[in-house]
Records
---
Amino acid sequence: MTDQLTVSVLGTGIMGAAMARNLLRAGHTVRAWNRTRDKAEPLAGDGAHIAGTPAEAVESADVVLTMLYDGRATLDTMRRAEPGLRPGTVWAQSTTAGLEDVAELAGFADAHGLLFYDAPVLGTRQPAEAGQLVVLAAGPAEGRNRATPVFDAVGARTVWTGEDGATAAATRLKLVANSWVLAATTAAGESLALAKALGVAPEGFFDLIAGGPLDMGYLHAKAGLILDGRLTPAQFAVTTAAKDARLIVRAGEQHGVRLDVATASAERFERAAGQGHGDEDMAAAYYASFDGDPTA
């Protein structure tokens, strides 16, 4: 297995920056690019080369790792990277994208001779910074000696779902997992909002379900962010949650399934964003239950 790789990280937001730092800690060479260069610049202090363009970033790369907002942004960025791409380069596509987007990205990879890996990740800011993400991956055996060290550097576990990234097998699993995460986030916020409206102390609710099948660590984590006012920096932003919820709804529609909870969650996240909470943690969807400021 290759000891050291040159990895191009395109997209250095919350997740991409953390992944880049873990790649550097693992001894890999990192060439980073972000649409807003200021977000990439801090990585220079960790040893990354900051590129001015996507094409510059992917020059001489063994692996290209994309972690951008959505499928459209990813395709646009890879088109800008074309002059620097080499046939045979591994492309690990970790953006949460729609099923049709993955097919289009795989088509781009095929046209340019890239080894395409559909590789979204499960986890938010903290596990990303700790290198404890779960990587969901589908891609050819041919390039796994280069893809695997990258996945090992950013994640605690890799779940392989197949050998053809174009099937979007990994993204399908990610959307199912995210449907649960977003539903649980919505439910946590609504329960706290109802408790406030009815004059019920949240601690009474937590004590009621403690240790039973209805109790869950995720509820306490998200409720704690709301109750303690720790919504920034976001673990996973409201605007990104809204985008993912819409992807889930569309995937369901494409396959004849009506997803009422995901639809309602998307609307709540979008309403919270409209109230000014878009850059806060997705737990801030709590505020979508109120017409005004619930703390006023």
Note: DSSP finds twelve helices and nine strands in the chain.
---
Amino acid sequence: MELQPPFRKIIHVDMDAFYASVAELDNPELRGKAIAVGGGGDRGVVSAASYEARKFGVKSAMSNVLAKKKCPHLIFVDSNFARYKEISAKVREIFFEYTDLVEPLSLDEAYLDVTENKKGNPSANDIAREIRKKIYDETGLRASAGISINKFIAKVASDINKPNGQKTVHPEEVLQFLEDLPVNKFYGVGKVTAAKMYNLGVFVGNDLKKKTLEELVKLFGKSGTHYYNIVRGIHNSPVKPNRIRKSVAAERTFMENISSEIFMIEKLDKIADELERRMIKSDTKGKTITLKIKYSDFTQQTRSKTKTNFMQTKKEFFPLVKELLFQDKIPNSVRLLGLSFGNLNTEIKEPVWVQLQFEF
């Protein structure tokens, strides 16, 4: 089955190692060195890493202790969100020179719909190249881009020629591109889900395409429908310039149900690290913290607490998480825990749940 026109022209622009690159920009002595952004204390977590650090296996959400073990010469630098926000605003001004259909995902990445654009340029590939050059000329920072007919493929494509590159997947190439794509490269497929697919003999998109919709739904629930569609090039979500984020969250499904509240605190501690990272990356603060609990019988419960002041860091909100967990007796073993922030200080309003791992 061939995809039928008309096709949209979607660009996903992703700044290369944004936080670390800003640190290098402001302190040229750091250029070419292994850098981790975030507090350097033993209990801290890496917010971002330079490409030099990534070569040693250092990555975001990793504990500082582990990062230092992997890369003994790692240099920790403090976050500077006022500076990130300043540069992000400059980059978005460049986007708006080409189209008003800009959907920011965070400070360092965005989707652009350039099907019809302010420059009257029919080539999305040329537009992406122009944008990347202009970003470098005006900020001194590099960006990569993916270009294709929908947001999903553009997002996947932007990672292929990183750093400082771009990849265009033309309409006639889409189906073959998806069939050849390793499933772990599909945006939204984490390590555990990929491992489950490998166990099912699904290694690339073509293997996934052989599964029926019924099989995929049975195996992966609602995500099964998503996988069925995307491997066929079907992803109709438009670029939403006025997307409003109502919550930022992180959750984790466990391989085995847990009953001990001590274990739950340990799991929530890790989830809180990820939630803090997402809050900081999106430059978001919230007043309401919610604990989500899904029990082994698949019943679900949420417990919330609202403060008068905005919160962003784990140090601010984790004591409330503990209060919520111990607020009532846990009546059953637990298969999923999640944390989310609501009542945000931002005008961006659509829920954003971040699945850390999907363990089956």
Note: The mean pLDDT is 90.
---
Amino acid sequence: MSVRELVVLGTASQVPTRHRNHNGYLLRWDGQGVLFDPGEGTQRQMLRAGVAAHDIDRICVTHFHGDHSLGLAGVIQRINLDQVPHPVAAHFPASGQRYFDRLRHATAYRETVSLTEVPVLADGPLAVTDGYTLDAYKLSHPVESYGYRLTEPDGRRLLPALLAERGIKGPDVGRLQREGVLDGVTLDEVSEVRRGQRFAFVMDTRLCDGVHTLAEGADMLVIESTFLDEDVRLATDHGHLTAGQAARVAREAGVRHLVLTHFSQRYNDPADFERQARAAGFEGELSIAQDLMRVPLPKR
């Protein structure tokens, strides 16, 4: 069965807390799994969340601060220990190649899996699969950072009333979908465009063009909101967003489901982030991320 959901493995900014692990997010996209920003402790969180190494097909690192990448060593070694049967691709800023190399080869282990490195050199597409196109766009942080976006190809949705008008039913429906035309009736005449789903992942950054490009029209936007609005100066100085800034981006971009995460340890009440996001005018679905929660993508 097709499953599209976000599995939250960790939500802390900079340091873990008693209730929040370092970052880590697994996107289940049908039969594929994309692991974003595996911070320290990700392997343990995967176990708690029921995520296996076999679920990972692609790893995407936004930047090489420790809370977003220190778990790479353990995850890569676990992929090899479990002898994952399929190749795994790894994406990360090309400027951080030396950090990736150190983490990949941090200790001795036996490599059994094909791990393909595809560093991010510039804005644009990184991979094209049958299920999605993966793009990266540069963000604004003290170290080079990229956000990621998955875009499903547009499809077509059959309209039962129009099929009935033309007497198309049963096995003929399948024939029409496969061949594009049946007894002079084209697929376009009895269907409409179904826009492909879009998922965006934005971590440590100030407001910049890349944030808006990644968020535009997203069905789900996972975005950092390290600070509350009263600490906007701190956010700007350190290259981060506030809850209100993230929510305004989502509102302006037409995001359907907003997931706020990457919270500073200085705040104790997650409800404050929700209040500020709503105050900024975001009216769509809203989740304040918690470790080990699962968030389904909105229905198509």
Note: The chain has a mean pLDDT of 97.
---
Amino acid sequence: MRAHLGDQLVIESPTTGAARRDGEIVGLHHQDGTPPYDVRWSDTDEITLVFPGPDAHIRHLEQGQATSTPKAPPGTSEAETMTTAAHPTGPADAGDIGRRVGVERRRRGLSREETARRARMSPDYLAYLEERPADPTLATLIRLADALGTTVAALRGGGIDLPPGQGHALLHPRLRDLSPEECRTLLSTHGVGRIAVSDSDGRPAVVPVNYEVVDDTIAFRTVPDSVPAAAAEREVAFEVDHVDEALSQGWSVLAVGPASVVTDPEAVRRLTQQAHTTPWAGGEREMWVSIRPTTLTGRRITPADQ
């Protein structure tokens, strides 16, 4: 058995062959990749020294041919820029990795300096990685993932076509109700949420929309005769959530209340000017629908000791 940093160790049931535990290999004790390994388990986020038995196998993160070594950006070391045959960059676009790093860093409220310190790298290199196409080594990505509390696969966009929440549940989860104030904080100013409506044929439908929060009102843009537009003049449910795959925890917020079309020209102009993003679906979407929640509830899953 041989492994590289970032590979996955999978423990299977000897009777069914189904995976019963898995984790990311974050430390090697032999240069040739033979056991034992330091493994960060997906169900507990704990790192332990593992001597794999006959019920274990390695799921390699990357396979393929070596790529060329990119030119070193300012402030980087040789270790941060060298690409090896054992760990090619794979299909991920270099610029996409940097954008994901930047988004995750800002989401956790970390400065570049603090993130670079945690990842043991130059702040100049982190700035280069976030702002320009770069080709970080797997070792660099592992350090960044650890600093940001996420996984290498998440930074590389490996799960972009998979539904969230495929990791193992926490061993001792805690499900806690959120106060209305906490729900408002999690809704924040904008994002992507899901609206539950009945379409023109009376069938239930749930569709994602880019939304804005203005005062105590949730607003989104759409086009007439669309499914989201069917929310107008009805009581609807609007849901926002986030799942932290690395820690197997997350939260959800549900807002319920009447929806209406925004018709006042000044209100439409203000919403359009203050919108943080344009609708990801594209096209001319100039019909604003607002939801004024009458109830705001939410729940959060965390480890029992938090």
Note: DSSP finds eight helices and 13 strands in the chain.
